[in-house]
Amino acid sequence: MNEYIAMLNSYGIEYKINECLKKYSTYKTGGDTKIMVFPKNHNELKIATATNLEYVAIGNGSNILFSDYGYDGIVINTKNMVKMRFTGSLIVAECGLPLSKLRESAELNCLGGLEFTEGIPATVGGAVCMNAGCFSKSISEYIAYVITNNGIFNNEQCEFGYRTSIFDKNKGEIISSVAFMLKPSELDVIESKKERFKKLRKSSQPLGKSCGSVFLNDGYFAGKVIDQAGLKGYTIGGATVSEKHANFIINNGQKSSDVYKLIKLIKDRVYNTQKIKLKEELRFIGKFDD
Hints:
Blueprint: H1 2-11, E1 14-20, E2 32-38, H2 42-48, E3 55-58, E4 64-66, E5 71-77, E6 84-87, E7 90-94, H3 99-108, E8 111-112, H4 124-129, E9 133-134, E10 137-138, E11 143-148, E12 152-154, H5 166-169, E13 175-181, E14 183-184, H6 187-204, H7 222-228, E15 235-236, E16 239-241, E17 249-251, H8 256-274, E18 283-285
Parallel strand pairs: 2-5, 3-5, 4-18
Antiparallel strand pairs: 1-2, 6-7, 7-13, 8-14, 9-10, 11-12, 11-13, 15-16, 16-17
């Protein structure tokens, strides 16, 4: 690790030692990471990931659960990589750009397609890595190509699936920027679609500290089967299954372990009562006690 830090210093790349992870997750839980790196551009990202040490990249932290023990490796924080450029209907955006900023910029340039992302609290990199989507739409439908720390991938090479991609499967492949091909549209049409998706999200999703949907809707509606298992409102420590939408776990405490234990209980209860094996949509970072 000392050699890695010396390398960062030689290139002037920003980093922090023993950084607390709580403020980087929408659950607001987690221990410390040995080192957190803040690359400002593609070249710094390539340098920061040119190591045999274990690392993981994060964006807004809206789809992850950090361990209370922290992370014994390098966290690449992409918050400083927020540039974008327009070439006609093509937008190339860096990985740390909030998805909301990308959508707003597209709207201002009368480019439609991303209205369904209204309310998704992700960065470009995180959204593309997980192939974010809702209301039967996915962000992969609008991607021309992706640039990573190692190369360039066209849409087919990204191997997009339901809430997954090659970048999710290959942890060493970190998204640097993404090119979106959108369609010219009238501003009032874009605004109308955005408001419709906004109302749908507001009517179905609860407030509070959460990661969004905890489980995949993999041939079933996870919220429905969790509700049928009688788990709405079920609580472990500071973690509670939402009364409004059972696929949300709201955290009112300070421990990731409470959320983790509740996830395990939900999976066991749903399998025992309905023989359905729930699969997590969120990702675990660090070690968790079984």
